[in-house]
Design a protein that fits this description.
Length: about 260
């Protein structure tokens, strides 16, 4: 494992506990965790934004975080793990989990829908730029049409530019960090998360070094973010946890 100043035995035990948390997160994809119950908040959100959907955006972000953490664990289990890729994976996992929190957290459906459409539109734009650069062909017109249809169905009379506002990953992480601090009830957690993300990038670019003890704390913090995302997803995906307006909205959507 990464070199450290504290006793190897103490850090080995700490990493073992962290690896248990990673195993749980990475294993969610083999369970029914991501199934959306009929009548749940995410079920209604998906219906409202059909054919774009909403739940897939947050579910895929959580799955991505789990895969980054799993790859990180495999790296750390080596006899002499390389430090720079470890922090790069840590930052990627943190960004993915924060994206899920940002999408799931608002209780207001208009805000959740707006965020989902912004996320989807940003992904379309990035895919189109990459496609143009590599193959001289743009993104699928079907994807753009689906986005336009979802926006026009939900935001009647609202300019599409509302859902085309640029996304900033650092701002997304900062917003998610506030949610994590409230969820974990750890004072100062938001500052630790946002500053930690910047630090992960600096270490990954070899700007400064970090020992094993710092990494263990950073990994635990990033897992706090992922576990908050899991809790939010579960709350939105279970019918018994639906928000007060879900039933009325569902009846309206099914009737139109």
């Amino acid at each position: 494992m990464l070199s450290h100043d504290r006793s190897p035995l103490a850090l080995d035990a700490e990493f073992a506990a962290l690896f248990d948390r990673i195993d749980f997160l990475a294993g969610l994809g083999e369970t029914v965790f991501f199934d959306i119950e009929n009548g749940s908040t995410l079920f209604v959100d998906d219906l409202a934004l059909d054919p774009v959907g909403a739940s897939a955006l947050s579910a895929n972000a959580i799955r991505a975080a789990g895969q980054h953490f799993a790859a990180l664990q495999s790296l750390l289990e080596r006899a002499d793990p390389p430090r720079l890729p470890a922090f790069a994976l840590l930052r990627a996992a943190l960004d993915a989990a924060s994206s899920a929190i940002w999408l799931l957290e608002p209780d207001d459906r208009d805000e959740r829908a707006s965020r989902a459409l912004r996320r989807h539109w940003a992904d379309l734009g990035e895919a189109e730029q990459m496609s143009l650069a590599l193959t001289a062909s743009g993104a699928s017109s079907d994807d753009t049409a689906a986005w336009t249809r979802a926006h026009s169905r939900w935001f009647v009379g609202v300019p599409a530019d509302r859902a085309r506002m640029a996304l900033d990953t650092a701002q997304t992480v900062a917003a998610a960090a506030e949610v994590v601090e409230a969820f974990t009830e750890v004072p100062g957690a938001a500052v630790v998360i946002t500053s930690g993300r910047a630090g992960f990038g600096s270490v990954a670019m070899a700007r400064y070094a970090a020992d094993g003890e710092l990494f263990a704390g950073s990994l635990s913090m990033a897992l706090d973010v992922a576990e908050t995302a899991i809790s939010l997803f579960h709350a939105r995906a279970v019918a018994a946890s639906q928000l007060p307006d879900d039933a009325a909205t569902l009846a309206y959507l099914r009737g139109r």
